[in-house]
Write a structure and sequence with these properties.
alpha/beta; Beta Polymerase, domain 2; 5-stranded mixed β-sheet; two-stranded parallel sheet; 9 strands
Length: 165
């Protein structure tokens, strides 16, 4: 199955929940394959799409959940999945506003999403509804802000100590 066949199959089952296919046409074959992504238009459909990918299309592995501050008041999360048995990959991207940075968790589908979602919360401030252990993974619970956001301002003091520049 190619990426485009998987996308056609997803479109048949999820229709308007999916957005455009953004295909990278420049670079190496690897860059084209990993830089292309399917937009998710309806964030609430993420768990259902993930279950379908795993159970019906044999995407048995979640490689990565990455997050990005787009610099325009929105945050994006990209889900990178693959079939290790059939040797195909797919990336799906959803965008939310900073004010409503909440997505459904997919830990019930791929348990190791736990760590990825916690990192996206810690570094970018994206919450995952239904996450079983939604706490920071790299920073202290009381750390002010989310350091990978473009508008992050490092505190001058933390716990009474000056923060080095």
């Amino acid at each position: 199955m190619t990426q485009l066949e998987a996308i056609d199959n997803l479109r048949t089952h999820f229709g308007d929940a999916l957005g455009a296919w953004r295909e990278m046409k420049d670079g190496s074959a690897y860059q084209q394959r990993t830089g292309s992504f399917l937009e998710i238009a309806d964030a609430s459909a993420i768990p259902e799409i993930a279950f379908y990918l795993r159970d019906e299309l044999d995407f048995n592995n979640l490689n990565l959940i990455s997050s990005l501050d787009n610099g325009d008041g929105t945050l994006s999360v990209t889900y990178h999945v693959e079939s290790t048995r059939k040797h195909y990959q797919l990336a799906m991207k959803v965008t939310v506003t900073k004010e409503k940075a909440m997505l459904p968790s997919i830990t019930q589908i791929w348990s190791h999403a736990n760590w990825h979602e916690r990192e996206a919360w810690d570094m970018m401030g994206i919450r995952f509804a239904g996450h079983p252990d939604h706490r920071r993974i790299l920073l202290e619970e009381d750390y002010p802000g989310h350091p990978l956001r473009k508008d992050f301002k490092e505190p001058e003091f933390y716990h009474g100590m000056r923060v080095p520049n």
